[in-house]
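FYI - complex with zinc ion, inputs then prediction.
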Amino acid sequence: MTKPWVFSDVSYGRECPYIKDVEIWIKPSIDVKLRYIAEKLRFLEFVAYLKIEKIEREDKIIYFVYDMYIPKQIVTQASFEVDKEELGKVLEYEGVVHLHPWRGESSFSHIDKTCVNLNHEISILMTLDGYTEASVKVRVPCGKTLIVTLPRDKIKVCDKEVLSELDKLDELIREKITTVVAVNQSFHQEENITHSLNSGKDDVENDEKLMELIFSD
Ligand SMILES: [Zn+2]
């Protein structure tokens, strides 16, 4: 793409023990539009720019995509080029999404990583089957910025209002649902050992027994 490099003074880090879980939530109406364009163009790439609201929660950071802009662009099966007149306008958008026009999985190309992802707070990749990967710049307490790659299960189609409902659900789950983990489910990979444990025991107790068995040799 022709967007110029934006050099910044941030220093990039590789890992941070304090980083929170990160998710991207795409407003359902935006998702419908993106998929519609993808189906219309079929085997051609395209790019769209995204407005993002960052929602900082105790346990995670959610980047909520609430608006999008389709710039004038020339697209081929393997590239997109944004019209030069649009470059000023697209700088107003913190996020970007582009299509790799085939079915199934895909991951960012080298050019995506160096030119697209580094120039945006968030960058989402989609194929004709949906979102497959995203790259997010996360500022961590030490002042560094991490480039975090999110797998597809961290890219959700969901409205912001659902958040408060999920909080209520958390309460309800705590109140009403008693969880019992069956021993042979939690340790199915250790089949021989779990079979020697009796069922009906508290699973914490069984955990301890299992550890004893593992370490007794
Ligand atoms: Zn790409």
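The longest strand covers residues 47-56. The chain has two domains: 12-163, 171-215.
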